[in-house]
Design a protein that fits this description.
This is Plant heme peroxidase family profile domain-containing protein. Belongs to the peroxidase family. One of its GO terms (cellular component) is mitochondrial intermembrane space. InterPro entries: Ccp1-like, Haem_peroxidase, Haem_peroxidase_sf, Peroxidase_I. The protein is mainly α. The protein has one domain: Peroxidase, domain 1, CATH 1.10.520.10. 53% of the residues lie in helices and 0% in strands. It has 9 helices and no strands. α6 crosses α8 and α8 crosses α9.
Amino acid sequence: MQYLNNNNKKISIQRYNTSSTYSKEDRTGGSNGSTMRFEKENKDPQNQGLEYARNFLETIKNRYPGISYSDLWILASYVAIEEARGPKIEFVPGRKDAYWQNKCPPNGRLPDLNKDSKHLREVFYRMGFSDKEIVALIAGGHQFPIDLELKKDPELRKYSILYKEDQLQFQNDFAQAFKKLTELGFKVF
């Protein structure tokens, strides 16, 4: 990840994954609920390896039981990005936790970053993102084979070039897109 080192990367990936389950069609998934705590979502193959982040944040939750898991996980991702010299993102509290596993969104909603730009658009359009926001989120958060898709797709490539040439524009767009991502299911856009 461009902004994250190995110590805080998994915290933001965890938050990215939980938020990326949102569907604007039925308004399920997203950052509200922190359902990754439950076995159903925790066992999604794309959530494997995030135990460190959950365990680390559990120690903080134990010290501050008044904060919801949902707010804690979002706040932690914002702090991790900022500590890694990324943009500052304004935190808005108020997310509620789910208390039952039946609130988990269906598995398979996360973007598969080994697939093509068509798949990427299907997943991100389901959440309500534009091509520009897709590139900002991918460029700020992943380095996978999907990077090649950003170069192959003419519409996505133009934003990749823009961000390569204008770091300030990239930081601003990344901050806005990441904030939007982490408020899916909490705020309606």
